[in-house]
Amino acid sequence: MKQSIGIDGPAGAGKSTVAKRVAAILGIPYLDTGAMYRAFAVAAKRHGVDFLDEETLAKLVHEVDVQVRYEDGVQHMLVDGEDVTGELRTEEISQGASLVSRVPAVRDRMTELQREVAHEQRVIMDGRDICTNVLPDTPYKFFVTASAEERANRRYKQLLESGQEADYDTILHDIIRRDKQDSERAYKPLYCGADTKLIDTTDMTIEEAVEAILSEV
Fold first, then answer.
1. CA distances from 12 to 4, 94, 115 (A)
2. Which domains, from first to last, does the chain contain?
3. To bridge 2 with a disulfide, which of 72, 90, 122, 215 should be the other Cys (CB 3.0-4.6 Å)?
4. Which pLDDT tens digit goes with each residue over 7-39?
5. What is the pLDDT of residues 113-172, one digit of tens each?
6. What angle do the packed helices 148-161 and 168-184 form, to 10 degrees?
7. Pairing of strands 140-145, 30-32
8. All residues at 6 or more sequence positions from 190 whose CB lies less than 8 Å from its CB, including other chains
9. Distance CA 20, CA 137 (A)
10. Is 161 left (phi over 0), alpha (psi -120 to 50) or beta?
11. What is the 3-state secondary structure of the chain?
């Protein structure tokens, strides 16, 4: 496996934004692994499968075809050949992705797909268990985080700037709930490994976070 770069961290910490900028500077592909779980959540919804029905989800993940495709350097997610990229960022799918990712069979299948991409080329990818599970042997491991309050504030501003209604307290509650789901799940939970560099972006700019990673790579 080529020496790819792994970034883990909780929701809203800015890891995807940082990863994309690092990828652009280094000239390597960026793989949004969270989008893969979101795509599977879309598939589950379309098949009428409850996000909490672990047994059916475990079967479904081997029946649907989830693929990553790059168009002009932009990642697209396909489910059974259909581009579902435009459906990935709703709150329902966000929560669904966090729930389906707790299913061992789902995580194992997504891990297989992620490793396939990393075997083919050097990439930078972010998620919840990239450093601890997907790319355990890479020397480039980072855990990007920020306080729950700061992450909620960023999301609140982002929604307002896009013209959407937003409630800070609701967003904060959702972030805390997702943190709990991701860090307390029984199978491959979110945590910062001993050999992973911690980058707390609470009081950092995106540029500073990017430089912190580039200085190590």
1. 23, 11, 24
2. 5-200 (3.40.50.300)
3. 122
4. 999 988 999 899 999 999 999 999 989 899 999
5. 999 989 888 999 998 889 999 999 999 999 999 999 999 999 999 999 989 899 999 999
6. 130
7. unpaired
8. 8, 9, 10, 128, 129, 179, 182, 183
9. 22
10. alpha
11. CCCCEEEECCCCCCHHHHHHHHHHHHCCCEEEHHHHHHHHHHHHHHCCCCCCCHHHHHHHCCCCCEEEEEECCEEEEEECCEECHHHCCCHHHHHHHHHHCCCHHHHHHHHHHHHHHHHHCCCEEEECCHHHHHCCCCCEEEEEECCHHHHHHHHHHHHHHCCCCCCHHHHHHHHHHHHHHHHHCCCCCCCCCCCCEEEECCCCCHHHHHHHHHCCC
Task: Tell the burial category of 144 from Cβ atoms under 10 Å away from its Cβ (0-12, 13-18, 19+).
Answer: buried
pTM above 0.85, yes or no: no
Q: ∠ at Cα 112 (27, 14), nearest 5°?
A: 50
Pairing of strands 5-8, 124-127: parallel
| Side chain identity, residue 81 | G
Angle between helical axes of 33-46 and 91-100 (0-180°, round to 10): 100
Cα separation, 86 vs 29, whole angstroms: 20
Distance, CA of 191 to CA of 205 (rounded, Å):
23
Q: Inter-axis angle of helices 33-46 and 104-120, to 10 degrees?
A: 130
Distance CA 194, CA 196 (A): 6
